[in-house]
Fold each of these.
Amino acid sequence: MIFWEIAKRNLRIHMLRSTLAMLGIVIGVVAIASMGILGNSMVATVSESLSSVGDSVIVSPYSGGGGGMGPGGGGGGVSSVNLKLSDQQYQQIKRAVAPNVAIPVLSTSERMKVGVGSDDIVATIYGVDPQYIPDLNLKLTAGDYNNANSGCLVGSTFAKDNNIKVGSRISIGSDGEKGTLRVTGIIEERGMAFDLSTDSAIVATQEWFDNTYNRNDYDQVVVKVKEGQDTAVVKTTIEKQMNKRDKIVSVTDSKATLASIYETFGTITTFVSAIGGISMVVAGVSIFNIMMMSVSERIKEIGIMRSIGTQKKEVMSMFIYEAAIIGVIGSVVGGILSILAGYVISALMLGTTKYLLTTANALSVGEGIGFGIVICLACGIYPAWQAANLNPIDALRHE
Amino acid sequence: MGDIMQPAIQFEDVVKIYPLKSGDVTALNHISFEVQRGEFISIMGPSGSGKSTLLTLMGCLDKPTSGNISMSGVPIRDMSDMELTSLRRDRIGFIFQYFNLFPLLNIIENVSFPQMLKSGVNEARAREVLRAVQLDEKLYTHTPMELSGGQQQRVAVARALINDPDILLCDEPTGNLDSKTGASIMELMTELNKNGATIIVVTHDPNVANYTNRTIRIVDGCIAS
């Protein structure tokens, strides 16, 4: 492989030039791959936050037009003033989605005080029948599920921010006018959720909620779709049942929403990687320029080679090897650095690096490396072709 | 390929015209001659007489506008670029005025280069031809830039001989050497010719021509004598 050897030695004697060309490819690969890693890590982060509700269908009162019926009326309608779901509507939904579990959820935003002398804070309070807590997949980091009427669960962020432990008491309403709740358990961090965003909230019993706020209706119904059943089918079933004449409820299929979010993230990742690709194109132009310089400096040498019996394809291979060496070394170094860059960017932007070593990120790095090598080879082809097709007589006379 | 009974080179009514914008230039005008195996020939003539064109045609680097050229009885007219390249590799050894060694390769690699193109490396053969051109063995792993002009030309001769060619084409082989070194190179050529090599030297140095057995003089694209 004499041409391979010549290519290596030529790059070595032009070390600075070769290194600068590789640097361009390194930057291009890092730009593409690290952006891919960031995008994949974002998707993984969101995916984990939303995975616990990946099999849910959320039913809410329709807010887009209104059925013109009274609040909580027997007809089960909604109004633009009081957007609630009646118990009758809940029962309809429950029957329609059986055997899947339909969980009625109440919620309000309330002023409260945690501990003596502390300032008032405002947080969301959910009202959920304790029997449905396991179905909502609310895992506890401390304490037990609440069965007592005056007990509640609190989200991890709420507990941390307000220094709350199991057994702590929370005065609800201004000056505790709505009573006191005792914390029986702390809910594990859930992140964003379609159903209950519990991290900064309180989950009380439905009974306490009804009594305190005098409610006999619901803010939403969370349908937990059993394994093996299709959320889209459940969504359609509810819509057919509830929106026969007028649109009364809005139904959100969490899986479809997740898919839409993933698609959006995918588009963003592709777009950002494409911006990184511009730097790769610039690097490619630099490789092309360097290869053309290499050819023009070695015209005489090419002439000698051709005159003593070197075939065109052999001359061409020598220059392709040079481009390949630049491409492979630059791309592999770029791939390694992009993992480091992905680590730093993920740590800074997402606050976690636990999604770094994933198949998707390995693919992103692989794509960056592959693109770098392909760009180098593509930019080496024309100079190599030009070298191979030099007229041997003219090349020999070249000074 | 080729017939050992045929002349090493045969030119039949060869014309070479370079079409230029300012008008066609006839470099060789109806030239016919033969070079028999084992001959040691010099080609002389003033600048612009057509010597270089003759050399490029003999070296199969170009084709004639008309007429026929045969190498060991094989006409080159219809050969493809690939076939001509293989012909140059296997049957012709080139020796240039400026040595034209590859600066990135050491001496052994330079000499082995045409062999690598043909059949792979045989370092023993490279050492054999380097010994034949009387190059000090200590220099074999040096690069060309570390050698004197005379030593570089000996390496160039060794490179030309490595594939055991039918003919050696030499373009002013002593033109870049002092007279003493030039004489030693010509003595080496003479020695190679005595051992059976067919050698054609293009020169305008009468001292070089004196080493050869026959001189072809070119004037205005025609053979003068």
Amino acid sequence: MSKKRIEDLRIVRNHQLNEDYHVIDLQPAGKLPEIFPGQFAEILVENSQTTFLRRPISVHDVDTERNILSILIQIVGEGTAELVSLEEGDYMNLVYPLGKGFSTDDPGKVLLVGGGCGVAPLLYLARILSEKEYEVHTLIGVRKSEYLMQISEYEKYSTVHITTEDGSEGEKGFVVNHSVFSNLADFKRIYSCGPEIMMKAVAKRAEEAGVECEVSLENLMACGIGACLCCVQKTNNGHKCVCTEGPVFNSKELLW
Amino acid sequence: MVDMSVKIGQMVFKNPVLTASGTFGYGPEFEDFIDIGKLGGIIVKGTTLNPREGNPYPRMAETPAGMLNAVGLQNKGVDVFVSEIYPRIKHYDTNIIVNVSGSTIDEYVGVTEKIAGLDKIPAIELNISCPNVKEGGMAFGTSCESASKVIEAVRKVYHKTLIVKLSPNVTDIASIAKTAENCGADALSVINTLLGMAVNAKTRKPCLSTVTGGLSGPAIKPVALRMVWQVSKVVKIPVIGLGGIMNGTDAVEFMLAGATAVQIGTANFIDPAVSVSIAEEINEYCENNGFDSVSKLTGALTC
């Protein structure tokens, strides 16, 4: 694991994907630390009256060659609105890299399932898994086709499957209704990130099929470094800090 | 050169900056960010006789200029502290203080007895002010009678420096402070969190699983300053000020109001390196304002 650091990173690109989402590319003055898929950063929000704590934001992608860390931000409140209002050349203060990421050490055929802003950590995961010669499938579920983002990015590293609730693109329904779920046992592992209700449904299907499932949780947190004990998740081994013992957990550990 | 050292009880601190219990883990959580040896002291997580799971999630809510927590003293218990945690932190070149918590007087005494034998723990901070546990905790710190019982019982078995952490959720903090002094406390930590509450209008539910929790952060700084000022006027023992200190200027304000030292709490969550910066900023303040010793700031307020 890399040493955690506090650092100002310069915004080299702030790209608005749609009304609610921005991808922001950040560059430190020196070299980026080693970052694992599923890890996150705690980002300081300045100039906001109502935002006191840092915002935990997933690492969306890392381009080691260009020394760029990308984050995907969904505007949910004043803090995230303030962050996406920053411009190229401005700086963001990050505490990073934080948390324990996804397992990436035993290649095979795997399925990544994301919904909403939960797709954020899956792009970097797909990149790393494809570098390690996994056979990667990504399933992205949204309400309607307008909410699909960055499909071409996921296609660089994986076979992409889509569900929309209104049937406007891909298969109609929720992610677990997708035909890929009918052959779940073909997969060595499933990785999921998104709304809790979606992850629970995915984990249930994975467990029924006897397939390992890793999920990434988004509990409210303060410090991000295991000091405040606010972000705990109930597990079969007591309360665990999502920030240090997660955010990625094997679904079987969770009592949810 | 400014003399940054301060004395509390039988102890000397290299500077007046300590980290507050429950906001700094046991120290290792911050090792990537700071040299812990640059702090006056660290006060580790509230420790109870038996392991505690704490309260159910959600146990934190962000509020204007602060946050509420209802962690509820989650910790692995004193035996795990002694056997597993203490050996990993005892090399720190700073004063390590254990925050002792409990539901009954016997529990406070039991934890204290197990901590008393540890060479590298020169003091305990008696937590009679936790607002997030059903039994004990704050209940001990909100009346002079119950406060005196628990402080006297612990004082009997503890011969090193005894700090008592006071609750702000009282009508007259000065009288509780006086009681603590009379019962043998060597110093007072002023203040613990203020009891508060947050509501989610969208879901029409409380934000915390426990409904109420402890408010911390800059939102409580004026209340904390007022209480430090009131308490330091009525007791002779040192007061350690805390409540919303975010930077060196805040820390200096607490010392001017009467604090001998300060604790940094919630600010650690925003900037994990802030405690060391605050020590440096206090030093700069002394240099820039002609104080050759930081202890001369204590109570230097002119009203």
